[in-house]
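[audit] Reproducing an earlier prediction to check determinism. Same input, same settings, fresh worker. If the tokens differ from the archived copy the diff job will pick it up downstream; this log only records the rerun itself.
[audit] input (553 residues):
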Amino acid sequence: MARGYLNRPDLTAERFIPNPFNDFRLWFDFAHQPPIVGNAGEKLEITESQAESNHPKSNRLYKTGDLARYLPDGNIEYLGRTDNQVKIRGFRIEVGEIEAVLAGHPDVSQVAIAVQLDASGNKCLAAYVVKSPGQILAAGTLRSFLQERLPDYMIPAGFAFLDALPLNPNGKVDRRALASQKWQSSSVAPNEIIAVSPRDKFEFQVTEIWEKVLGIDSIGIRDNFFEVGGHSLLGARLLAEIEKVFKKKLPLSAIFQSPTVEQLASILRESEWSSPSPSMVVIQSGDDSSSKKHKPPLFCIHVLGRGLEFYRPLMNYMERSQPVLGLSTQIMDQKLAPPNRVEELATYYIKEMRTFQPQGPYFLLGVSFGGTVVFEMARQLDAKGEKVALLGLLDTYGPAAFKNLPEIKKSQRLMKILQLEPAVFLEKAIINLGGRIENLTQGYWWILSKFYRAIGHPLPIYLENFIHGELNNQALRHYVGGVYPGRATLFKAVETAILCGADRELGWGEVITGGIEVYDIPSDHLGMLKEPYVRVLGEKLQAAVDRAQEMNS
């Protein structure tokens, strides 16, 4: 897999250890107890010569840090880690790295990071901090400090402030004891010293509901629901609790459009409230006191993910003065949503967009299927004589992307696959296998989804994502687009393009006739919206937006 860590001889010596199993007699004595069993239960006899021929010797082993044991039946039981490495949202994280950075804050005396479970049962990081004597600290202050030094996926979801860290009899931090400590939201604005407390009955009651649903304490009235562990499923539970307490039914879009206690309480104070745009949500307001120049909004179309999570990491690398608005029919009451067809969705989103910006030039962005909707929006706007300053496509494949795919010879496809790095190739092979297994479960998921709806329960996250994906595929199969005479900016995930055998323009060349500017992102399809690749995407996207604004100012 590798020969060592780059410029880290100490870590290489620690992890790449001498292979103790070069003596294959020792290996088989250790690894195959009881004897290997083959087909129909017969005992397999493997000679030393066969073992040597089938298993080439290696001088080194990689010490992963995983702890496991052999069971009497020959299976292996995974017990955990021998170090403090954890896996959160698909990323392997050394908590010691976060602790070292956080310990560098001048007002922090001691710190420990531990894995907690949020209210929905997902793993997250929590930081336990002992403040320096006489200092005042808040979660938002430490979050801001870490965001300047660490990628987004390494930022703890919450903080707890302790008088001292719990220790075990050996004098080491007792991480299990940390689990009993309450932790505070880390999304308080960086310029706040402490979270703003509720100021009236409405804010107090909404805060209590938030803490109950999210399972955390010390919620500030300006904390963002989706930055403290909330997502659409918890949003539905939150609104159900609000209905019980306030006898007022709010649409799901309300929590996306008003994601703080302060904003929700303001809605509840109004006797008659209706959403001005039921599908629109503010991803980034664009409020920046340091910028005097007004910027037109970037409209992100048909946004997906729990709490629009696909787009939120991107905001870390966009200018704060850039307004970013999301449009998604999936946060609406489905009785009011347009038909699930690309043309109908595009028409509806244009209508919603014009409630905020009546005239062009428009700046449009879509990821995956959303890019197809954006393309159709650009066509319809062009037909109405409106100007589209930016048509941004995030790894969206055009109608001609796969038309020549059956003609590609197996040898050519093999050569394309071999262009991938070995680690990437292995990852894709595992994903491909997982995809085949997943196909077998789709029928079951459809039945399970209908069952949840029949009993009136919200869908679990995996079923919600599955349904959204299937609806997108249905709309795409029925879409027959035309030609768009303008320009487009395409952000292409290189790894996926290689595996698919797609051309440089991902099949858009024949229908986007005004020219296509292509930016290569060294990631897979949705990987471009995750660390570390989202930084590359964010910088390139901001540059494209700035150029389009200059050309249309």
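[audit] rerun output stored. Observation attached for the diff report: Residues 202 and 265 are 5 Å apart (CA to CA).
[audit] end
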